[in-house]
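Hello forum,

I keep getting stuck at the same step: I have a sequence, I want structure tokens, and every attempt I make locally crashes halfway through. Rather than fight my setup again tonight, could one of you with a working pipeline run this one for me? It's a single chain of 120 residues.
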Amino acid sequence: MMGFFVVSDLSSPLTRRYESKPKRGNYHNMATVFIPTPLRRLTGGQSKVEATAASVLAVIGELDAAFPGLRDRLLDEQGEVKRFINIFVNDDEIRTLHGKDTAIGPNDRISIVPAMAGGC
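Reply #2:
Ran it on my machine without issues. Output:
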């Protein structure tokens, strides 16, 4: 998909021409991991970070290497994703795919979503 930006034609202040320009995007073959607000204190306030690992489990390891303590917030003592944590690869929850072994490709979006509790 192409975006557009305005380029002023210097020969006439009233004329403008439009040139196409690629929209900003993730063109460097890295997955983007979206960090929920409760975990951002571990990432220095970053709402999204990039990862190059090939599976969800490897991404969690990569994130923990960069941001110590993140793994403990996402995985239990057996190394399984905690039941109140949902992880999506693109729009699919990993439990409906291959769990923590779900493959990650370039430009995938990984969303970490903690379950919410409460009610009336």
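The first helix runs from residue 56 to 66. If your local run keeps crashing, start a new thread with the error log.
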